[in-house]
Automatic annotation (TrEMBL):
This is Very-long-chain (3R)-3-hydroxyacyl-CoA dehydratase. Its main location: endoplasmic reticulum. Its EC number is 4.2.1.134. Catalyzes the third of the four reactions of the long-chain fatty acids elongation cycle. This endoplasmic reticulum-bound enzymatic process, allows the addition of two carbons to the chain of long- and very long-chain fatty acids/VLCFAs per cycle. This enzyme catalyzes the dehydration of the 3-hydroxyacyl-CoA intermediate into trans-2,3-enoyl-CoA, within each cycle of fatty acid elongation. Thereby, it participates to the production of VLCFAs of different chain lengths that are involved in multiple biological processes as precursors of membrane lipids and lipid mediators. It is a multi-pass membrane protein. GO terms for molecular function: very-long-chain (3R)-3-hydroxyacyl-CoA dehydratase activity. It holds the Pfam family PTPLA. Pathway: Lipid metabolism; fatty acid biosynthesis. The chain crosses the membrane at residues 34-57, 78-100, 120-144, 156-181, 201-221.
Amino acid sequence: MAAAGSGGSRADNGYGGQQARRRKGPGALATGYLVIYNVVMTAGWLVIAVGLVRAYLAKGSYHSLYYSIEKPLKFFQTGALLEVGIVPSSVVLTAFQVMSRVFLTWAVTHSVKEVQTEDSVLLFVVAWTITEIIRYSFYTFSLLNHLPYLIKWARYTLFIVLYPMGVSGELLTIYAALPFVRQSGLYSISLPNKYNFSFDYYTFLILVMISYIPIFPQLYFHMLHQRRKVLSHTEEHKKSE
């Protein structure tokens, strides 16, 4: 689910979160690559944030701001595919979350032009942007073993608002795309054909929306559990000092 990324749900203490993880952490070369990757991604999402603010100040309205950040959004969201298998979270979970976001970026928002002016697009873009700036900053400082408490706190706190915000934007955008997909037959395959295979993209999008029902609560409450564990551990560590 794309939303999982929007709440920072790649639930882990980071590259340097646990002592055992540190001992099994990446080597010097891999660490260098990861630092560069995370710095670039942080900068990329900062570019998107600045683009949104500048467009808003220029237009005086939050409507249709998507066009001002369309290219960098596609580039850096697709670039997240490079982190599958290298971040310290579950490969399956990371791949699922990254692919769902890429799907929403390309197969919904890019493919169904009519939804690009919907306010719901701005809703998930803002949620993603704030989340990713925090998340990639978190990973960068964790790799350097200099993680400010404020960044750790933001990663494990702001998802409480950003996750539902992102989910709402994603669901509303898919819902807005449905009538246009049905009318155009986008990505659908009808019978008869030589492969004797049919696919209804409209139905597929409805199933994607339904999948949020069981997945969203599980990931959200998992992150709440992670928040209690990580931040309470930090408080105990401070007291012990």
